[in-house]
From TrEMBL:
Single GO MF descriptor: RNA binding
InterPro entries cross-referenced by the UniProt entry: E_motif (IPR046848), PPR_At4g14850-like_plant (IPR046960), PPR_rpt (IPR002885), TPR-like_helical_dom_sf (IPR011990)
Keywords of this entry: Repeat, Transit peptide
Entry protein name: Pentacotripeptide-repeat region of PRORP domain-containing protein
Intervals holding PPR repeats: 195-229, 262-292, 293-327, 328-363
GO biological process: RNA modification
A Pfam family the protein falls into: PPR_2
Domain of life of the native organism: Eukaryota
PROSITE patterns associated with the record: PPR
Keyword Transit peptide in annotation: yes
């Protein structure tokens, strides 16, 4: 057995060598510390890999479960999920803790469904930590039934208070998101009334479910209980605020978090003012952000786009590049939407060409749909159809739906028929396409064709979307 062994590893910085003395007990802590203390993923990965090699050379692996588990987590934290998976696969008999580590790693890297599948194929009996991790995966994957099964197992097989303290917030968020408000409130009732994570889950769950009033009431209840919110609290409640309540949260943020808050808070404020149509307030908030990230720029550009300020959106996209921020795919989509909403056809085409040919981004279906919509709204239908033929992938319903909508706007039966034929193949069960095509025929005086399409709705037993009235307050 290894009592105490000296091992030299190279730190990330060139020329910086340290002799690390470790044993079985200290090695897991050293590995995890290496993953979390480095300023970059690259530096952390180098150190973790060196420790892994040293542990293998000294015979610590694969027999030591704590070291193996630490490696799974450390590789994941360093951005190396494949190495985490390999470390897990080399464990002869993975423990419950091993499964907790690998499920957390998969979930952290956006592979929650794969984590749930891995757990389903295991033979381990989950403890509180593994159940909590599993419920968190279910929340990220929005998988209601597996979460409910984990909930039932936890209540029956592990200490109830410990289970709710660990898994409660994720359960609350998932239940609320799926409209199971009674279940969410019941789980919330078992939580620590002073635990801000549980309050955040309840507020965020209501907001995600579109129950803004209840999210706001929950936020006020939290404050009346003397619980101090954090940045996530403000972000959660801002997603459900109207302008009046949003201004109150803005004041709350300034009092509690001050001007040095994280960009995520300011980005949420930007989104709230944008939804309310108050672009000037959004711009004031944007200018106050000290460390603007790409999300800040995207939200501000989106605020201009949604509220009819297309040219300002383009100006800010240029400013974004000028200040050294690299536009991403969402920036691309948002700017194209601004061009669509404001009829900036040539500008939109130029931007599309610049992003695809200049930056090398592969356009998404949504971005291609923007170009089709842009051209068709301008009455340039031949170019729109020609563009669909040049797309790198086969156009989907989003693209053809944009052409059908523009054809209705211009009462263009010829290109409406082209789009409709493609939509019937792409999504034959969507009654909205049939209704739109029927209306186009009717507006063109083609009564028999309109009746024929309406009969297709009845023959296919499709449910026509219900009409809605909207009264705009001035």
């Amino acid at each position: 057995m290894l009592e105490r062994t000296a091992c030299s590893t190279s730190a990330p910085a060139a020329g910086d060598h340290h002799a690390l003395t470790f044993d079985h007990q200290s090695l897991p802590r050293i590995i995890l510390s290496a993953a979390t203390s480095s300023s970059s993923h690259g530096g952390a990965a180098v150190t973790v890999s060196a420790l892994h090699a040293a542990a293998t050379k000294l015979g610590v692996l694969p027999s030591s479960l704590p070291v193996s588990n630490a490696l799974i987590s450390a590789y994941s934290l360093s951005g190396l999920l494949p190495s985490s998976l390999r470390a897990f696969s080399l464990i002869p008999y993975p423990s419950t803790a091993s499964y907790t580590c690998i499920l957390s790693a998969l979930s952290r890297h956006g592979r929650a469904l794969e984590a749930m599948s891995l757990f389903a194929s295991s033979a381990v009996s989950p403890d509180v930590e593994l159940l909590s991790c599993l419920v968190s995966c279910c929340r990220r994957a929005s998988s209601f039934l597996p979460a409910r099964a984990a909930h039932a197992f936890g209540v029956k097989n592990v200490p109830m208070l410990a289970f709710y303290a660990s898994a409660g917030p994720a359960l609350v968020a998932l239940y609320a998101k799926h409209g199971k408000v009674v279940a969410a409130k019941r789980v919330f009732g078992f939580s620590d009334g002073e635990d801000v994570v549980s309050w955040n889950a309840m507020i965020g769950g209501f907001a995600t479910a579109g129950r803004g009033g209840e999210a706001w009431d929950c936020f006020r209840d939290m404050r009346s209980h003397g619980v101090r919110g954090n940045a996530r609290t403000a972000v959660a409640v801002l997603g459900a605020c109207d302008l009046e309540s949003g201004r109150q949260v803005h004041g709350y943020i300034m009092r509690i978090h001050s001007g040095g808050s994280k960009p995520i808070l300011w980005n949420a404020l930007l989104s709230m003012y944008s939804r309310a149509g108050h672009v000037r307030d959004a711009e004031k908030v944007f200018l106050e952000i000290e460390g603007k990230d790409v999300v800040s720029w995207n939200v501000m550009i989106g605020a201009f786009a949604k509220n009819g300020h297309g040219e300002r959106a383009l100006e800010f996209q240029d400013m974004m590049v000028h200040f050294g921020m690299k536009p991403d795919s969402l920036t691309f989509t948002t700017v194209l939407m601004a061009c669509c909403h404001c009829g900036l056809v040539d500008e939109g085409l130029a931007i599309f060409q610049r992003f695809v040919a200049g930056i090398g981004l592969t356009p998404s279906m949504e971005q291609c749909a923007c170009i089709v919509d842009l051209l068709a709204r301008a009455g340039r239908f031949e170019e729109a159809v020609e563009f669909t033929g040049q797309m790198p992938e086969r156009p989907n319903a989003i693209v053809w739906g944009a052409l059908l909508s523009a054809s209705r706007m211009h009462d263009n039966v010829e290109f409406a028929q082209i789009a409709f034929e493609q939509l019937v193949q792409a999504e034959p069960e969507n009654p909205g396409n049939f209704v739109t095509m029927s209306n186009i025929y009717a507006n063109a005086g083609m009564v028999e064709d309109a009746k024929r399409v309406r009969m297709m709705i009845d023959r296919e037993d499709l449910v026509k979307p219900s009409g809605q009235s909207c009264i705009e307050a001035v």
